[in-house]
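Changelog entry: the Putative hydrolase of the HAD superfamily record was regenerated in this release. Current contents:
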Amino acid sequence: MLDLDNTLIDRDAAFRRWATSYVQTLGGSETDLRWLVEADRDGYEPREQLAAAIGRRFGLRETDAVLVELRLGMVDRIEMDPTVFESLDRARSAGWSLVVVTNGTVSQQEHKLRATGLDRHLDGWVISEGVGLRKPDPRIFMAACQLIGSQELVTSSWMIGDAAVHDVHGAQAVGAGGIWLHRGRRWPAEMDPPDHVASSFAGAVDVVLRSA
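Regenerated structure tokens:
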């Protein structure tokens, strides 16, 4: 099982590229850009609320267009790391089934998967809006395993992601292994540790392949 944002794609870099262009279009400043990046909260701020906040910040009366930009405009700024595709293919060649488990809207997350070409390297995906469940709810990880055959597969599966709670602990709660992409951060001291820590997606896949 695989997280999407900041795991398979560098979502933060894409958002910053989009935000830089968007703030310039609105005639904003570097201060406005820093505000927007912080207000995004690593993608965890609900898009509707962020669109409303942008509207207030820049005096925009209509925020529907802002919401569309937030959900779709960033996708055009995604720059894929070739090693991600190579690692996905290595895992599939070794017999692993690959399912993305991601929070978000179906339209936005499927647009990312198809626009980047990731969809052609996966066995499927489970998106929170589509199943009415959000990570770290254990049932969303069970749904991912059901997608490829049986919920019983969960205890022999791995979850690779950058979120300590949503990805790693959510998956560990149902018996899956959790591999944390640290992205230069320290694991929260108050939390039980992940099964493995990796500095890159390719490194995380190496852990999975060695476990077989």
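The CA atoms of residues 92 and 145 lie 15 Å apart.
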